Amino acid sequence: MSASQTPPATAVTGDADPTLLVKIFGKDRPGITAGLFDTLAAYAVDVIDIEQVVTRGRITLCALVTAPSGGAATEGSLRATVHSWAESMHLQTEIISGRGDNRPRGTGRSHVTVLGHPLTAESTAAIAAAITDTGGNIDRIFRLAKYPVTAVEFAVSGTDTEKLRTALAIESAALGVDVAVVAAGLQRRAQRLVVMDVDSTLIQDEVIELFAAHAGCEAEVAEVTARAMRGELDFEQSLHARVALLAGLDASVVEKVRAEVRLTPGARTLIKTLKRLGFQVGVVSGGFTQVTDDLRERLGLDFASANTLEIVDGKLTGRVTGEIVDRAGKARLLRRFAAEAGVPLSQTVAVGDGANDLDMLNAAGLGVAFNAKPVVREAAHTAVNVPFLDTVLYLLGVTREEVEAANTHE
Length: 410
Description:
The protein is built from 15 helices and 15 strands.
């Protein structure tokens, strides 16, 4: 372009300018999108918006374009040409006249992720109705995953995120589906920190019960653990009471317990995918560093903190050393990890199952109760009640296809 030339002005479509919505339906095959726009190109129209979706091999393609110059005769020619092209492709078409662009989306935008196992028509209808009842409008719906659960995401505008979250929490509990509501915006794509509880979250076991099995006091410890997780006992007191039962165990039991630990289904996939996305990942545990340090090394975690069993002369003393990681301690560690990672607290995600995770879940930008006790499900931002930890990815807007692509070469 020479210095004397100027670029063409960008067309701006006003609310009063005539536009055409061209809709195409039929069996999907390569070349449909190119064919439609080749046909439209002959009329020198500008593209304002495009939406395309393929469901079970059937395509729905919508193109919002400016009306052609030349008046009714030219528009009539465009309509006839598009219909003729569609017929030659064994497609159906509909062309709707109107004015201007799409109406502006309402203020207050949110992403609503729904997980069902299965996702029924009844529950989908109820979720949609609840969104409408809050004053929200569903702008777009798409599927994130079809297995191990069905996950769909609604893009919603016109209502406050917290109001929507409260309404859908009530609805989801009644329906038996999991629903997460997060505010839309650039922060959803920003770097994040994900911090998880360990026992019955990252792993399927309660570590202290694994130690107790070697000490012959598994039943006693399990009962105290259950009461603590339900919030019936002070965590620190219950910790000291349980650890005291381990006094005298040989330190070699640590390696045995490490070998017995079972990761939750989807745990490796979750962590690998988060790391590939550039997220930082940590764990906090009311369990023991003798196990969490091993998990940190095996899984490539960025942060890990837990209580430490005291070992003297090759034996467990029945005591713990250092700062106790309890309910308040987990929240403190979340904040500490976030500061070290350079991630604002609003960009953190916390995942846990017990009452001692509540402060951490509430402090995080998104708190996820994973197969949690009722008191935790009621207090967390959202709940996941399927036994697959990688479903947390769907709450972050990551699709199953993206997960599989990220892990194809593992």
